[in-house]
Specification:
It is a single-pass membrane protein. This protein is of the alpha+beta class and 412 residues long. The protein contains 15 helices and ten strands. It has three domains: 2-44, no CATH class; 64-335, no CATH class; 357-411, no CATH class. The protein has helices at residues 2-18, 21-24, 28-33, 36-42, 46-87, 141-153, 188-192, 207-213, 215-218, 244-247, 253-258, 281-287, 302-327, 337-384, 386-411, and strands at 92-93, 108-110, 115-123, 126-134, 165-172, 199-203, 221-223, 232-236, 265-271, 291-296.
Length: 412
């Protein structure tokens, strides 16, 4: 194994040393007699030139990679920020980095423009919108090449660095106002109790994988329907709420949004459950958070950016219309008390199952701890000689029992 690595390395070192074999054969007096310019001319600079070219290559690819990510991020967030501010009328849009940088960029970038974050708040029905994006580390060309090679030869290997995505999380606030002079409803907490359900529209190309990645989708039923484009399926806790999203959006939602977003939209989900499976009932309760999750690939052109904006606007529209129906106590509300009760019963079964698994794990851990304590106790007894005494007593006890059984057989 070492020979396979060392042999080529040794040959390479010998080759590099051989480039200046003539120069190295000069005596000290001959080198001393040369001027600095004569030494520069006489010396073979091939290896050094290749090193400089290699460093220039890395620097150029680094700059190109960073500039590509910056360009993608600027276009993405400029489009979203403009739409949120001008069309959806959010009072505050964007974040400013505390580390300085370009003040015109209202988003935070980390790890050389691979992790990007922005935010919007200040609007009826919506508490906040969190925007997260991940781009490939194009600044590190060697790492990308290695990841691609590993992915090609090992089909099960999936590097998270190679996955580019955009995730938008919209949180409701349970407050609906029709205009600036309208009074704010004071029962927002009560309103938010009606957002405890899971209903989603998921792209068929990713539905199997996404059920494994997202806990809240693993609890849903898959339904293929003609009411949405053929590229999508419904994934809801119960089938009665499949039409929730379409009921609160415009009639053109299928043609103007879903159909045009089929190449980059992964899923839309209204949920209050966590992304990962809770360990117990307490963790389940603490992790509940009503929200709409939109996950997409990074839009590649202006048309996809416009479709993304319409998609975000449609989900905000869902919260607007649903919150309005709840505040005004409309009879047309899609999510009824009976539906919420049925969902709650299904969730109680899931909580019971989680608690059962948690207790089983706790019991197994306790048994493992008990075994470890017994092993530790035996080690301590062995050191003090007490273990040998106990084993001797046990042997004598077994021998006495054996003799007693033999006497009983003889007397019988």
């Amino acid at each position: 194994m070492f020979e396979v690595i060392l042999t080529p390395l040794t040959r390479f070192v010998e080759y590099v040393n051989g480039l200046n074999e003539v120069y190295n054969q000069l005596t000290f007096e001959e080198q001393k007699a040369m001027t600095i310019f004569e030494r520069i001319q006489y010396y073979n600079w091939t290896f050094e030139m290749y090193c400089i070219l290699l460093m220039l290559f890395f620097y150029i690819t680094y700059r190109i990679g960073v500039s590509i990510n910056v360009s993608k991020a600027d276009k993405l967030f400029a489009s979203l920020h403009t739409y949120l501010r001008n069309e959806l009328k959010f009072a505050r849009v964007g974040l400013t980095s505390m580390k300085g940088g370009n003040v015109n960029r209202l988003y935070i970038d980390q790890h050389l423009h691979t992790w990007l974050t922005s935010f919007a708040t200040g609007r009826s029905s919506i508490d906040s919108i969190n925007i997260k994006a991940h781009l490939k580390p194009r600044h590190n060309i060697i790492n990308l090449i290695i990841e691609y090679i590993l992915g090609y030869f090992f089909l099960t290997y999936q590097s998270p660095d190679l996955v580019e995505y955009l995730e938008i999380e919209i949180k409701p606030n349970g407050v609906y106002v029709n205009n600036e002079t309208c009074n704010i409803n004071s029962n927002s907490k009560e309103i938010l109790q009606n957002f405890k359900f899971v209903t989603s529209i998921v792209n068929k190309s990713i539905m199997d994988k996404i059920r494994l990645d997202r806990y809240f989708l693993s609890l849903t039923h898959v339904t293929d329907s003609d009411s949405i484009p053929k590229e999508y399926v419904y994934m809801s806790e119960i089938n009665q709420i499949n039409d929730f999203i379409k009921s609160y959006t415009k009639g053109s939602f299928n043609e103007e949004v879903l159909a045009k977003a089929k190449d980059f939209l992964q899923f839309i989900s209204f949920t209050d459950l966590p992304d990962f499976r809770p360990k117990n009932k307490e963790e389940w309760i603490q992790s509940l958070q009503s929200r709409c999750v939109i996950r997409t690939d990074i839009p590649r052109n202006k048309a996809e950016l416009n479709t993304l904006n319409k998609l975000v606007g449609s989900m905000v529209e869902v919260y607007d219309n649903y919150t309005r129906d709840l505040v005004q106590k409309s009879d047309k509300t899609v999510i009824t008390a009976d539906i919420l009760k049925k969902i709650n019963m299904l969730r109680q079964n899931e909580i019971n199952r989680i608690d059962k698994i948690a207790k089983q794990i706790e019991l197994e851990n306790a048994m493992e701890e008990k075994k470890e304590l017994m092993k530790e106790k035996r080690r301590e007894m062995k050191k003090t000689g007490e273990l040998q005494n106990n084993e001797q007593k046990m042997r004598e006890k077994r021998e006495r029992r054996l003799r007693n059984r033999q006497r009983q057989r003889i007397t019988q």
